[in-house]
Records
---
Amino acid sequence: KELLKLATLLYSAMRAEKKSKAGGEVDDDHDHHPPATLLTSIKEARSLAGEITDKGARLYDLLGQEAGVRKARIKALAFLDAISSNLDSTSDHKYIEKSIRELVANVGENTTALRKQCNDLEADEKALTAKIKKKQADLERGEKRLKSLQTVRPAFMDEYEKLERDLQEQYEIYMEKFRNLDYLEHELDQYNKAEREKLEVEEKRHDKISKDLMKEEMAVFLNGGQDGIDDVEVNQMMHNMGG
């Protein structure tokens, strides 16, 4: 049957091609056919070409399945030949009747299973609908409760606001004292630094005075009240003593 369809399609395409050629010759000779006829012929040719391609691909797929369905087809044809040649035989009729009854029974079982599944789904749907309604009711009650709580002022809010103001005041006092303490610590550091610098200067001056006195005493001791020893010699002697 598939080959017959393909042959019919090819024959239709050949006839359409001949008609288009004949129409072209008439147009060349007499030039009285309108362009719309040519456009229609071209569209039909393209449509037929696409249909031929699709049918060819389908035929190729069917021929590829030939090896698998050949045995079943031969068996079915043999069975039909046996029935047609022996119409009075009851065994074949019983076999067909049995097969049909089995198919009907299978369909009935599938229908029963589908009905049961539909009933279960309906029951689940009803249960879920009831749960959704319950949750929606709970949600509405919760929203109403929230709105009522938002509009009511708690009893402890006055005390809370008072404590919050006190805390803000204490924080400002703390920050002021902290800034004062930081300033005083800075001033104390500057004072200690200045005192250390003064002490260092005083120590240097005291050392210089001590060295000068030692020089004078050493000069008096060495000279014995006589001239002849200069300051360079005194410094050298003091350096040796210090070493």
---
Amino acid sequence: MKKSVKSNLQIISSLVLVGGLTIGQTAVAADSGQPQSDYTHYVTDSVQIPLRSQPGYKYKILRLLKSGTPVTILEVNDDGWTKLSYRYKDEDIIGWMPSSVLLNQPIARVRLAQQIDKTSRIEKKLNQALQEKSTLDSRFNDVSNELKKTKEDNFKLQKQLAEIKSISGKSIELNEQNQQYSQEIEKIKSDNAILKEQISQAGDVVQRQWFLTGGGVLLLGLLIGRFFRVPNRRNKWDSL
């Protein structure tokens, strides 16, 4: 009798403890409210939950599982108990636990830690992205300055090229003028040579004319002297 009362008190205490710890927790399956086989589930967000050797509060407690311990569902009976296994020091421990204490997602504390870790990774990536953006902005500014300088240099080169083309055009024009002047100079030289030849020939003609004229004058003088001879005054004085 005492053993029966003691056993009943243990069952009632376990029910009260489990019931108090599992208030407000979500059931495993959305439709049936029971855990499903071959899916990983988690111990509810409680301090410790007993894992028993058989489905019932009167059976031996194998271990106390901390809240958030991942377990694998093996079997679910109609009395609200779930057979499960979990890994402990390279050993698979199998036992039974009330289905109501099992959740289909990690407990809030674990999810919060995961979210904090995820947020930390995101912040780290964000900082890296901001650093990369800062580096890219700096490179963009450098490239923009180089592009601006290149445009200025290109403008100067275009201006110099235009001046060179203008000078080249003038040089071509001057070259053509020089060729024309050279041709005119050659023509003038040719004309000058012809004039010199003509002058030389004219000089010879003049000299011949002067020679002939001088000869004619001399001959005329001789003839005049011949015909108009002055009387010999010496003979006249001789007669006196």
---
Amino acid sequence: MTDSSSPPPAPAAPPAAPTKPRREQIHEVASRLFSERGYHATSMRDLAGQLGMQGGSLYAHIASKDELLIGIVDRAARQFDGALFTLRGDSMPAPEKIREAMHRHIRVVADNMESATVFFHEWKHLSPEAYTRVTNWRDTIDAFYRDLVIQGIREGSLRADLDPKMTANLILSAVNWAYTWYRPGGSMTPRDVAEQYADMLLTGLQAAPVVAGPERR
């Protein structure tokens, strides 16, 4: 017989979370250290120590510290591409498209604070070939926002006297630099930040509504 006074069996422990591949672990730690200390101030020995590895063991997974930086920057660029470029074929008016693009841009930054910091702050340390590739990518993003402004001017929703390049630079300055001050988990969500930025910017960018004159008889 079973003793009814015996305590119930302990619940089964939840299954252990699957271990991430070592290469992914290395990239995550590199993103954190590069964002906190800077690329040049982080050594391969620092990376190995954070991962509980011997310094030489890292080279079984990566070729160099430069390869790590390139991987972090390339991955961030792909995240921005995936978030933004689907808007190109959207039929919404330019002000709404700019607002949505700003939200998506800030969402990528907020969801990837460490790699975004590396992307925007440490990319200048890339090798010449990778530096050129990222410069070309930045030109593509500039053109994306510039095209939104041009769309708005043509459809009459944005002021006709706007300089598309300068306006695109203003938008990019707002969304790119969010990594310097935004903290996930605070009082503002990425959507809140994007809405406030968009409200302030679009107030100055949008064309004045056409006021009908008195009806002639």
---
Amino acid sequence: MSTARPLNDEEVFNEMKKMADEEFNIEKAKIVRQESLNIDAIFERKIKQAEVQKRIAQSNHINKARLRILQERQQVLDEVFEEANQRIHQVSDDQEAYGTLLEGLILQSAYSLMEPEMVIRCREKDVDAVNSVLETVADKYEETMKHRPTFTISEEYLPESSAGGVIMSGHYGKITVNNTLDARLDIVKDEMLPQIRVALFGHSPNRSFFD
């Protein structure tokens, strides 16, 4: 029966070195693998960040383009309404037509108020025109409502910057009807704005239904 020969110092050293090299290689492989995973993760994160930044840049570009289009469209609408505003300020230039218009506005306001006594506010330069139609308005109102109203022209005149028309009040000023041309233009703006947009710019491709 043979017995194992004890290792000499050199053999022991070589064996220990071999074991140390193996452990080193194992640890090195682990470190390399971990660093490789870290690099892959960093690379993937950088790619995602780049994609996000690209989408943000594209979104900003689209939003700026949309904003520019909206601003240009709003400018066109402003020009349309400014032209309309200039035109209503010319309505009173035709005295005969303006007198007929005042008659209709006062009568309409009177029907809305249905008060026995009503106060009329108008521009100071329209006082004569208003006075000239009050008798006719009272006759038409009496024919319909079976009682004759009393009209008083207020000395609190509409500003000269007004396009004309009247503001009428009843029940001691607690009830008011604004029938100025400026107010009626504002109503037209609100009611017809969607139609005006379509007429000027067409239907929006982003809308799936229409008013």
